[in-house]
Amino acid sequence: MKELMVENRSSVGWFTDARFGMFIHWGLYAAIGKGEWVMYGQKIPVKEYEQLTETFNPHLFNAKEWVSLAKRAGMKYIVITAKHHDGFAMFHSKADKFNIVDSTPFGRDPLKELAEECALQGMKLCFYYSHVIDWHHPHSIHDSANNIWDYHLEEKAFYHYWNRLVKPQVTELLTKYGPIGLIWFDTSGGLSKKDSEEMVQLVKSLQPDCLVNSRVSHWPDFGDFQSKGDNEIPMSGEDTKPWETPMTLNKSWGYSAGDNHYKSTDSIIRKMVNIASKGGNLLLNVGPDERGEIPEFSVEKLKEIGDWMDKNGESIYGTKGSPFPYEFDWGAVTLKENKVFLHIHNQKWSSSSLCINGFKTKVHQVYILSNPQQKISFMQENSENDGVYRLQLELPEEPPCEFSSVIVLELAEELKIDPAFIEQSGVIKLDFGHAKIEREQQQNAAEWQVKITEKGKYEVHLIAYKRTGVDWKNEFADSMKIEIGNESKSVMPNEDDIIEDSETCQHPYTEIHSHLGIFEIERPGLYSLRLHSSRVREKPKGPEIWQAAAVKLRAVKMIKIES
């Protein structure tokens, strides 16, 4: 398997260049209109669920319209559910009659039509395949989400399901539809390491250039790229291999008639920019209905995103993540060749100057990406003796572009920055992904070395994510101790600020800010910031179950409140 994985490294290039893809959750469950987990949630018997096939006729499905919409949105690849957890194949499978061609009046193979249209329009086609969970099959075994209302767990024989359904169907998907960009496996709980290796080997033997995601296995170090948890945007510095965030436009994945909780276009663009600035991809999901139509509100959102990408896509496609080891309060940074792209979100736009500390490289010119003729005045201050490197930009009074405006720094030489954690205009955000973790008897400690450029009083916030339904006070039974320089405070974190529209947090989590105290910084310099807490832990090795954590510590943020 190692040889196959090494051989495939060059194939990851298209994926990391793409940065933006369409996820499509579409299956028999659309006929019920309550999401893709409805069979499990309502414990619908197999015989009753099978009756849905008698009237399932998505006659409005149009492959050309779907692929054209993805292109219109600026997406570079499509991942569609060939088989989800309900076991229904959305393609013509000879391995099982429970499929859209043999079991429904529709009688067509939508994956075949999509494959043909993707080839015509130059779109990468990819398949999602639920390889462990299958509520329709009597021998599917998962570590938790099994059909035990129709079948007895002790009577299941996984090898029967694995060898007679899964492997044959994966083979069909990789031999009947032309070149496939990647195969997106899901929920591998309980799968053995041997079976995980065999599945990777099967994919590579059929299509060596087809990428495999990390969810092929719950064992560590599997996959050509890391699939983050559903809707999860990682911390800065958290990942070492290519990665992707699967995200829904609303709250559900499969079509849900009552789900009108759509993210704003502005929010989606800010999240996409944040993901790209960390070197990741956004896989944005739509859930077509039982007629084969993508909901109109989803279509409108995608077109609005496409309008922004038409003007600013250069700052997303084929870029590298930010060289700075922290997030900026005003937006995010991406790189490509001799250009640095500053994404300044309009809600953070200021008509005054924008100052960036730690920027060492000489800048040739600065302009607006959506209007290259609009130049930006700038000034640089470089003093190696004092260790001061500043780039100051004079911004227009109004944002030049809707949602997020992109400023291009065209460099005159190779990019160099100060790699330290530097306060920027009175703000510094320190992700736990970059912290040095030390084990202590009762509480662990997270430590950062922070360079403060302005003296004054700073308020320190803890940023955490709380899962829906969790009681905050039950999670924080012990106080935290925070130290900056020689000053220390002990505090019990509270839910002081609830961030409704976070750039990095979304359902089923909410971003919470806790005020940890005010610290006096008497003079600029390098300071040690240490946080002691029983909740400070090293990042787990191997795949992490994102939704399992009740509260996740995300970052510590220092904000200047007084000079």
Could you explain the architecture of this structure?
The protein is α/β, with parallel strands linked by helices and 563 residues long. The chain is 20% helix and 30% strand. The protein contains 12 helices and 27 strands. It has helices spanning 2-7, 13-18, 38-41, 46-50, 63-72, 100-103, 110-121, 158-173, 193-206, 265-277, 296-312, 472-475; strands at residues 20-24, 77-83, 124-129, 182-185, 211-212, 226-227, 243-248, 280-286, 331-336, 339-345, 353-357, 363-368, 371-375, 377-383, 388-394, 404-411, 421-422, 427-431, 436-438, 444-452, 456-467, 480-484, 487-491, 497-499, 509-521, 525-533, 551-562. The strands form 5 sheets. Strands 5-4-3-2-1-8-7-6 form an 8-stranded parallel beta sheet. A hairpin with a 5-residue loop joins strand 19 and strand 20 (444-452). Helix 5 packs across helix 7 (110-121) and helix 5 (63-72) packs across helix 11. The radius of gyration is 25 Å and the shape is globular. The N and C termini lie far apart (59 Å). Residues 1-9 have low confidence and may be disordered.
